[in-house]
Amino acid sequence: MTGDRHDAAGPARRIRREKMTAWWGRNALWVAIGGFLLMVAVCFLIALTNDPGGGRPCPPANVCGFVR
């Protein structure tokens, strides 16, 4: 047959691959937006856990959690 390759994947695998390609084609923008929002949320949580002072400078009379 014309265009028939012997090394091509079977029909079931080809259909599954085409379905995934179509899904990514329809949802790529939403995946990118969701990934960006997830990255922002993770960075926000990291900033919350690593900044106990709230970004304010430590007064000289206060130890601020450090051992002298």
Question: Any overview of this molecule?
Answer:
With 68 residues, the protein is mainly alpha-helical. Helix content is 59%, strand content 0%. The protein contains 1 helix and no strands.
In short:
The chain is an all-alpha fold. The chain contains one helix and no strands.
Please outline the helices and strands.
Blueprint: H1 11-50
- Separation, N- and C-terminal Cα atoms: 83 Å
Oligomer: single chain
How many beta-strand runs?
0
The assigned structural class equals: mainly alpha
Shape: rod-shaped
How confident overall, as mean pLDDT?
76
Strand content: under 5%
Largest sheet: none
The poorly predicted ranges are none
Helicity level: 55-70%
* Order of helix and strand elements from N to C terminus: H
Q: What Rg do the Cα atoms give?
A: 27 Å
Count of discrete alpha- or pi-helical segments spanning 4 or more residues? 1
